[in-house]
Every structure is written in C-alpha cells, then in structure tokens.
C-alpha cells in the first residue's frame, strides 16, 4: 500500500470521525444514518462502507482505539520496583493519560454527554475496573489493612474516572500536570488528609 494511499485513508477516516461526532452532538446517535455521516463528511456512502460496516461498527472502532491508547498508558505496575512506588514516574504517567484524553477531547466529551450512545459510560467504567484489576495483580502488593479487592479497585477506578469526567465537563480547566499532581496526592494521602478536622473512633 502506497504512502499516498495510506494518507488518503487516514484523511477519510478523520472526516468520517469528525462528521460522526458532530452529528451525535446535533442529533444524538440513534437518529444518525450512514447517509448523514457520508453527507457531512463530504464522501460517498460507498467510501464509508470501505472502512465500516455501519454506524455501530464505526462507534465500536473509535471506542476501541481510544481505550487501547489509554490502556497502553495506564500501567502503574511499571513504576514499582523493590516494593517502592516511584511517585515522579507515576505523575508522568498520569500526565500522559490526561494529555491523551485532551487530544481526544471531542470524542470523550461527545460520548459522555450523549444520552443515547450505546453503553459508552458503562464501557468506560468497566474498562477502568478491568485495567485496575490487572494492574493490581501485577503489583502483587501486601495490604496493611484488610479491604476486599473488589471494593478497593472499584473505589480507585471510579474515583479516577469521576475526576476525568469532571475535568472534561469543565472544559479541562486545569493543566494535565496539575491534575496528575492532585490525583497523586489523593492516591497517596487519601481524601481525609485535605480536611482540617479531628477524627474520633
């Protein structure tokens, strides 16, 4: 396959992706047809079908690509050596994650704000849970306090996903570096550490 052909395919897929996300924002996923996508992307329907079976296949491919990119980046077990977690490396990992989400901000914001996109929020939640479960197994850490694995992973994955969604919904008002710093602090010290209160048991 020639470089020229490769570039043409990349350009065509970008046109389709941009048109698809624009239409979801305007009409919702359910109302969109392949003809709508092709028309907005200024391509023929035949060109669309060269790359995707239908709008569901398009959605699945875009989702898989976005999550695969995040999966490559979210690997905290890489930063643990001799039972010591390198906080600076962890922060850098989180910066890359936020940068990656920022680079796909239109996709994530559209998918999360659409009320009829099939199972996207559920897919994202399951992705984070599965990813953190795998990383937990790779870390092979002993626990100071007994907390069931499911509760711990659900708490961590839901908390980080919640922060990411909030960040997107608020136009990514903070830089990736700042977000990484805050999440690292919360992961290491816990939410209780930020309140100036005494605790009774």
TrEMBL record:
Keywords annotated in UniProt: DNA-binding, Membrane, Transmembrane, Transmembrane helix
DNA-binding region per Swiss-Prot/TrEMBL record: 33-52
Pfam families found in the cross-reference section: TetR_C_8 (PF14278), TetR_N (PF00440)
Superkingdom of source: Bacteria
Residues of the HTH tetR-type domain: 10-70
TM helices/strands, residue ranges: 150-169
Protein name (Swiss-Prot/TrEMBL): TetR/AcrR family transcriptional regulator C-terminal domain-containing protein
Organism whose genome encodes this protein: Fictibacillus nanhaiensis
Phylogenetic placement of the source organism: Bacteria, Bacillati, Bacillota, Bacilli, Bacillales
């Amino acid at each position: 396959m020639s470089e020229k052909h490769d570039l043409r395919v990349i350009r065509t897929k970008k046109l389709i992706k941009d048109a698809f996300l624009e239409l979801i924002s305007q009409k919702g996923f359910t109302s969109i047809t392949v003809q709508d996508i092709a028309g907005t992307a200024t391509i023929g329907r035949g060109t669309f079908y060269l790359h995707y079976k239908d709008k569901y296949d398009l959605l699945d491919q875009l989702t898989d690509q976005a999550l695969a990119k995040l999966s490559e980046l979210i690997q905290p077990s890489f930063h643990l050596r001799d039972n010591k977690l390198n906080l600076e490396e962890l922060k850098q990992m989180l910066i890359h994650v936020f940068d990656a989400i920022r680079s796909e901000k239109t996709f994530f914001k559209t998918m999360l704000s659409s009320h009829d996109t099939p199972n996207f929020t559920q897919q994202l939640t399951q992705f984070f849970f599965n990813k953190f479960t795998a990383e937990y197994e790779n870390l092979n850490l002993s626990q100071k306090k007994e907390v069931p694995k499911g509760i711990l992973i659900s708490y961590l994955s839901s908390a980080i996903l919640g922060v990411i969604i909030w960040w997107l919904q608020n136009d990514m008002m903070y830089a990736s570096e700042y977000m990484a710093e805050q999440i690292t602090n919360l992961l290491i010290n816990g939410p209780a550490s930020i309140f100036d209160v005494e605790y009774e048991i």
